[in-house]
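Narrative of activities, Objective 1.

The group set out to show that a structural description can be obtained from nothing but a protein's sequence at a throughput compatible with the screening campaign. Below is one input-output pair from the validation batch, recorded exactly as produced.
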Amino acid sequence: MDKKPALPRTRLVSVRLTAWYCGLFALSLAVLFGFVYWTLDGTLRKANAELLHSKVKELADTYMDAGIPEIRWDASQKRSDEFLIRLSDAQNHTLFSSLPDADAQGPGALKALEARAIAPNERLFSVNVENGGAFDFANTRLKNGFLLQIGRNASRKRVLLEHFVESCLAVTFPVLLLALAGGALMANRALRPLSDLNATVQNIVATGKLDARISPENTVGELRELVISFDQMLEKIEGLVKGMRGVLDNVAHDLRTPITRLRGIAELALRNPKDLPGSQEALADCVEESERVITMLNTLMDISEAETGAMKLNLTRVDVTKLAGQLTEFYAEAAVDQGVAISLSSDGRCETIADENRLRQAVGNLLDNAVKYTPAGGRVDVAVTQAAGQVILQVRDSGIGIPPEDLPRVWERLFRGDKSRSQRGLGLGLSLVRAVALAHGGECRVLSQQGNGSEFTLRIPQLV
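Output recorded for this entry:
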């Protein structure tokens, strides 16, 4: 049986966000309705208590001034039609009572009052009626010991609260539907960049094309930053993949020549098996070409290790001035043979913590390039200084310079400009210089004008 396709992860997140939104909205609505209900109930209780206390005080004053007849007259004039009035003696025997005409629960409330014991200093209380109703009462003890009680049916308050609850329930369902629709809309809108992101990733996985991008126009905040970062990551990956392809093409091209040469030398030696001197010369040529291939591969591995942060450094205290002097002397003979003057200037002893062999490789490559591409009559100047916590080594030459279109690519692996192809080399020297600088936490820069020479600057942190 075929399995049903799984719901996309972004869709699951959208459903969860919508559910959370609706749940929080419903909880907030319940808290709001509960608070309003509690406030309304308290307000009605307070208002009813104030009304009962006011009425019982008014009738108590009336009784003290004119006695029961005035209270009876007040009741007969319907001035107190909504109230139950009762006057009892000290033994709780009813002396006078007036029941609301429109309230059928009045007799039951009066009967409950006559059967109820009155606690001392009790001023406000409620009594339940047999048919489920309730009355709120306020009473006061008169100076002659009699008890005056005023009551009011609590059903009005209950009915008002019930209407409030019914209104809340009637409003809740459509509001929750609106919240559900709004939550779904907001979740889908908020997660649209993630859906586009997922679609882009799936397209890349399916086609292998890394040129797909996501537009950040309809996104804001953190999602916009995520989309921009993802596009930047794709650009970086695309650049790395193109670089890897270029490196592989260049490696294949550069390996083809020595391997073809190795094969040709071996075939030539096999054709003349009795020519011992020729065979020995062929073997020497094979060793030389093998060394060239091994050097290329080792340099490529060194560059890769440095760029990934995996290059192992044997850190020691290094005097860069001394190191540059040794290399200048080493290349002086080749420079003289080529008719190039080479010089060294420094601020004195410039020390740092570095891998001396790696640093020697980097400086040696800079000097080798400077001498190699400087014509007869030119000069190469090496300067070692220290400033702002860095050791700075500069190599200036008056050579052929670098074309503007090639200048951004001089640090790339196996890149060789048109004018440099006439010289023997692997196209890895400057890439190794940059890799060594990065491995030491430094940097390297180049300034050049075609026909006016170049200036390479290597900066290494002065960790001493």
